[in-house]
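Input/output pair, single chain:
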Amino acid sequence: MEQWQRKRDIIAMLSTQEFVSGEALAERLGISRAAISKHIDVLETLGLSIYSVKGRGYKLATPVSLIDESRLKQGIERRCFYFDDIPSTNAFMLSHSEELESGDVCIAEYQSAGRGRRGRRWVSPYGSHLYFSLFWRLSDGMSKAMGLSLVVGCSLAKVLGDLGVEGIGLKWPNDVYLDGRKLAGILVEMKGQADSNCELIIGMGVNMAMPDAQGETIDQPWADLQGLAMPDKTEFAVRLQRQLQADLSLFEREGLNAFVERWQASDSFIGKPVNLMMADKVEAGICRGIDEQGALLLEVAGEMKSYIGGEISLRPA
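Output:
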């Protein structure tokens, strides 16, 4: 824990617009210049971009916003697990699911094994983004969880909008966009039976300030909140937990029907020509939003069809 606090202190000192010398860092923290150098090396291996200029010192290339743990735990009224470093917030919650209650959350500054949809790697540089998982138990089973990722997308879009972020859109079935580029991904994992108790882990990663080197490894257009009125990450996490708790309770009572209008209002692809990719098959049509089961509505040659799986992309004009 002490070693992580040293790293957090270094990040705080490097968050100004000016270079800070290694000597000044060492004096402030009461450790050697060599120890400072080692901490800087570790931070870089964790994905941070740090400028190092001989004779001037160090400076963060992109801002880093760390969670204030005491404010986080005061703001979230359920159990909250917070880590500087963890393999995966979703995996942690899955492994402790029998001990958890609906609304409990796990938040980390770094994931060494963060995952996206279909097992894809989620780039997780230290402190740069929000890595968040929430536990929820459904008494009616997996069959009642259809469309849940759409509810989560609506929750995230509302919180970002309430925090003043403009240009937010939703992409079926589990992505959040900013000005047409991917800002956040949602991964829902389940344990249980089709018709009895079902345990859900709702994970998401939200890009806040992507380091340049990490951004270069991503193979699709992405966005972050850098350069906007970037929300305080602690407040963001607290609001997100509260909004999810309210929306998931509504989903249990009324189903997806309560969210269709919210989804349609933020759907980035509605009314546009898209390709729906399903394994080795591609269906072309006009996106018409979703139905009350969360299926994608696609107009194909004048006929309305619904699909529950696959990925969509805009068709070239």
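The two ends are 54 Å apart (CA to CA). DSSP finds nine helices and 14 strands in the chain.
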